[in-house]
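quick one, 401 residues, struct below
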Amino acid sequence: MAIKIFLDTSVYDNLNFSFNNRQLSKLRDLAQNGEIDLLYNEIVYQEVYHNISENLSVAINQYNQLLMDSRALAPFKHDDSLSVKISSLDSDKMINEIRANWDKFLNECIAEKIDINTVDVDEIVNKYFKRLLPFENKKPYEFKDAIIIDSIRQYASCNPREEIYVVSKDKGFRKSFRDDKQIVVFAELYDAINQAIRSEENLPIELENLFNEDDFNTAIRATIDTYTTGGSVSVEDIFDEVDVISSECTDLEFEYVDDVNDENATIIATATIEFVVEYSERDEDRSYYDQEDDRYYWEVYNKFRNKFSVTKEVEIIVIFNTDSKNPDDLFGSAEVTIDDDFYLEKNNLLESELLETTSDESEDEEDDDYDPTALYCPDCGCKITYANDGGAFCTKCAPNH
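---
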C-alpha cells in the first residue's frame, strides 16, 4: 500500500521550486512506481503558484537592473555581437515556465488533491482567538495553515488505516499534529522519503531496484567471482585432483528481502556460476578389474575439460546511509556472503571435451597391450594364449586348482 505524503508550501519554497532537483525527482519516481501518493490541496497549489511569481520577479528585476547600472558591462550593450550574452530576462516567460513545471510535476506524480470544503471554520476561528496551534502570533497567513492542517485531519479521518506523512519547514505547523498518532511529521523532505523507502511495503521494491542497477549487480558478481577462485571445487564421483581453469557468475536473480533493521537490510539472491575444470576419470569399459584379487590389471584414463553450472544462495547485506540528505544515497556499501564449497554434479554438465586417453598396466601384467576380446587368468591376470592355456587358468596357475 502506497504511503500518503503531504508537502507544505514551505517545502517547495525551500527547494526553490526546482521540480527536477534530486529530492523532488526521487519523490516523483516513488509516486510513479506506486510507492507513495503525493497529496496537496487548493491552498498549497495557489500558494506555490503565487510564490513562484513573487520570488522570481524580484530576482529577475534585480538581474535586469544590474545589467542596466553596471558600467563594466557597457561595452557589451553597444556591441551587437556581444549583447546577446547579457540580454535582459523576460520575467513573464520565465514565471510561466516554472508554473508549467509545477503543473507538470503534480501531473507526473499523479498527485491527489484533498478537499478543503469540509474544514471546520468555527473551530479554526475559535483556535485563532485562543491562540491555539497553529495560531501563535495572530498572523493572517496562519489562517491558511489552519485550513491546510484541518483538511489533512479530515482526510486522515476518512482514511483511518492510512499513515500520513506531513512535511513542513514551519515548526508551529508540525507541532499542530503532535497529538495525531496517524500523522507523522518531518522537517526535511529527504527524511520523509528515506522513511518511505524503508517502510515495510516499499523497501523490498527499492532494494530490488537497487539490485537490478548495472553497477550494483556487476559489483556483486565480481565479489562472487572472488569466492569461486578461492573456494573448494569438486566433481561428482571424481576423487582425484580437479583443476579449475575458469569460473564466472553468469546470472544473479533477486529472490526476497530476508531481514531489515535500523542499520541494514538483507537480500537473498540466487547466483548461477559456470566452472570450466580439467580432471581424469577411469574408463571402466576399457579397464580390467579382477574381483577376486580386488585389483585393476589394466586401467584406461580419459582426461576431460568440462563446463558445469552450479547454483548458490547469496546473502547480500546492504548498509543504510542513515545520515544521507540525498535519497538516492540511502543505500551504502554491501557485504556479500556465499558458501565457497562448490560441488559440480554430472547432471549440470554443459559442455565436455576429451583431451587425451592414457593407460596404466599392472606390474604383474605380462602383455604389452590389453585385449578386451582375450581371456585372462583369474589368478595372475596374464593373457591366456595357445602356449599357456591350462583350461580356466594359465598353465602356471592350473596346478593350484
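The chain has a mean pLDDT of 83.
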